[in-house]
Write a structure and sequence with these properties.
6-stranded mixed β-sheet, about 300 residues, Rossmann fold, alpha/beta, Alpha-Beta Plaits, binds adenosine-5'-diphosphate, 2 domains, 14 strands, binds magnesium ion, 4-stranded antiparallel β-sheet
Length: about 300
């Protein structure tokens, strides 16, 4: 659906995007994760054809963004960081205006607008002026304009930034429930990407530092490590732990015991805590090690 190859963007001396390459397959929701200034917005602007790169190529559904910009723009629904809404227009008039800009045929106009309004739950405010809407509703209007024309690829640049927690949940649910679109969504919040996306790319200083499928990132080897703080720890307890069929490894590290389990399921963690309590070792603390993705993300956002 989307292929980005060796993309570079320099703003004078600032090298904002460095040799970035990635792919987005049809139907995937790819999280584009990174701290502020990582190059997310710049990359998305280039993909949407709103900014020229210094070098590199982008193709959408087989069309090159720079050679066939019109064809590519038909394939993309773009929600920029600041929603491009006109405050002195009513929601329905604004969506009609955008539909005309997108070249949607007159016969399809009202059906397209009604669909975009329904998908973003804007029915109750369709006749209100945008300036009178809350930030959450404005963001939904931004999303509705991206959906007009039913583009196969959605580029959503930090769609929940600046919203209150309730609005964040609503927008996330809306995006998760959109069917028939491939999505590239940027965020500086790890949990948001875990919640909405199927794959993630982490970028820092314009470069990819990690790329994987979300489930693989969560269920990796390190996610099955547990740290224990016990009142007493003897050789006998160590042997008893090692005799459990779900314990692969057990070692004392500083004042904690590190245990490697065969997997990271909640059931296993419950089993382990039951065993420890029953053996009377004085369980003070049992904490699963942070997910690898979380660790990397914290490291890079420092
Ligand atoms: N128009 C611009 N002129 C100069 N530098 C810019 C411009 N836009 C972005 N930058 C710089 O490029 C880098 C990447 O910015 P951006 O793509 O907005 O990152 P993100 O969206 O991940 O926060 C930052 O260092 C930023 O200061
Ligand atoms: Mg940005």
């Amino acid at each position: 659906m989307l292929k980005v190859k060796n993309l570079n963007k320099k703003y004078g001396s600032v090298h904002a995007v460095k040799n970035l390459s990635f792919k987005l397959e049809k139907g995937e929701r790819l999280g584009f994760l990174g701290p502020n200034g990582a190059g997310k917005t710049t990359t998305m602007q280039i993909i949407a054809g709103a900014l020229a790169p210094s070098s590199g190529t982008v193709s959408v559904a087989g069309h090159d963004v720079f050679e066939s910009p019109k064809k590519v723009k038909k394939q993309i629904g773009y929600l920029p960081e600041i929603p491009p809404v006109y405050e002195d227009m009513k929601v329905c008039d604004y969506l009609k205006y955008v539909s005309q800009l997108k070249g949607i045929l007159k016969v399809n106009l009202s059906k397209e607008i009604d669909e975009a309004i329904a998908k973003t739950n804007l029915e109750s405010v369709a006749n209100r002026y945008i300036q009178h809407l809350s930030k959450g509703f404005r963001q939904r209007v931004g999303l509705a304009q991206a959906l007009l024309g039913n583009p196969p690829l959605l580029i959503l640049d930090e769609p929940t930034v600046g919203l209150d927690p309730q609005q964040i949940i609503e927008i996330r649910e809306l995006i998760k429930n959109l069917e028939g679109h491939s999505v590239l969504l940027s965020s500086h919040i790890l949990s948001e990407v875990q919640n909405i996306c199927t794959k993630a790319i982490i970028i820092k200083n314009g470069q990819i530092i990690l790329e994987d499928n979300i489930q693989d990132l969560i269920h990796n080897e390190s996610s099955s490590i547990v740290h224990l703080k016990l009142n007493s720890f003897t050789k006998e307890i160590e042997n008893n732990l090692l005799n459990l069929n779900y314990v692969k490894h057990c070692a004392q590290k500083n004042n904690k015991i590190e245990i490697h389990l065969t997997n990271s399921s909640d059931e296993l963690l419950i089993e382990l805590s039951k065993f420890l309590i029953n053996s009377g070792v004085g369980l003070i603390e049992q904490s699963p090690q942070d997910l690898k993705l979380e660790n990397i993300f914290i490291e890079l956002t420092k």
